[in-house]
Amino acid sequence: MSSLADKRIVVTGGAGFLGSHLVEELQSAGCHKLFVPRSARYDLKRADAISHMYDDFLPEIVIHLAAVVGGIGANRENPGRFFYENLIMGVELMEQARLRGVKKFVALGTVCAYPKFTPVPFREDDLWIGYPEETNAPYGLAKKMLLVQAQAYREQYGFNAVYLMPVNLYGPRDSFDPAKSHVIPALIKKCIDAVDRGDRQIEVWGSGEASREFLYVEDCARAILLATEKYDRSEPVNLGAGREIKIRDLVTLIAELTGFRGRLVWDATKPDGQPRRGLDVSRAEREFGFKAKTDFVEGLRKTIEWYRAAHKMRLTG
After folding, report:
1. Cβ-Cβ contacts under 8 Å for 126 (sequence gap 6 or more)
2. Could you tell me if residue 243 is left (phi over 0), alpha (psi between -120 and 50 degrees) or otherwise beta?
3. Residues 116-130: pLDDT tens digits?
4. Is the pTM of this model over 0.85?
5. Where are the extended beta strands (E) located within the chain?
């Protein structure tokens, strides 16, 4: 049984994509004092709502996953909102946790915090060598301030806050809403819709030359549990799979797995985002024994199967 089993744990964003998988992972580890604040009752952008949440749940551990997120399009359309709402949530949650004597605060950052031209593989020590990629810099910088806050609070107050940086996630329960989705769910939906309609081609953003690394959501949930249980240091930690794939190859693979046999049309007027993303994942393995287990193709198959089932349920009512 996990050493976390008897702890009172709040998981912000616990009803979301990553959060729902983390809650299941914690439950499997024997944790039965879990609390998931819902936005209808606790608007975590408001200090008074955060105060009420802490009063109601009295957590010993806070795992902060809640975020306002989206793909390149959403980031370009909402830079101010993404900056303010993500920043204010994290800053106030951590400050009130410190004031209330919370034993540990686990902050989830983002790979978007890295500079645009970080050498691959991304090493945690390279976080400050430049400015993030412009299309999602406000979001990335807002989340990066959680690292600054965590390190400052540890130095001044002895507050145990840790900072984890997951790479792009994928898997069942992801958002397939075109206004919010990231690259894998967006491509899966586009290919399956094209198959259903009998379309002979699909349009894909960018040149296809950018690369990304992807981590299966269940692997990420396991990594967060391990870090919550075992990691108590100030240095940020990458969470990734340690493998990189070009977007062009990713699109070809998803088309094959979904059964789309038409033409791929690349719209090079649309942005690629960061040129490359691939993480050095050695710190996570060294510090708390995390290594991704899920084969990428198998993870894609599971994601596609989940989307097909969910899509069918919506159509049949």
Report:
1. 114, 115, 118, 119
2. beta
3. 999 999 999 999 999
4. yes
5. 9-12, 34-35, 61-64, 104-108, 161-166, 168-170, 201-205, 211-212, 214-216, 237-239, 245-246, 263-267
Catalytic (active site) residue 139: yes
Tokens 């769910």, residue located? 185
Catalytic residue among 42, 54, 114, 139: 139
- Mean pLDDT value of segment 10-25: 97
Q: What tens digit of pLDDT does each residue of 166-196 get?
A: 999 999 999 998 877 889 999 999 999 999 9
Q: What is the maximum alpha-carbon separation in the chain?
A: 61
| DSSP letter (8 states) at residue 213 | -
Would you give the end-to-end CA distance of the chain in angstroms?
40
Which residues, listed in sequence order, are joined to residue 12 by a DSSP beta bridge? 64
Strands, E assignment, 222-293 = 237-239, 245-246, 263-267
Amino acid at site 89? M
Q: What is the DSSP string of 114-126?
A: SBTTPPSSB-GGG
The set of residues, in sequence order, having a beta carbon less than 8 Å from that of 48 and lying 6+ positions away, is none
Identify whether the C-beta of residue 207 lies closer than 8 Å to the C-beta of residue 246.
no
Spatial distance between the Cα atoms of 107 and 92, rounded to a whole number of angstroms: 12
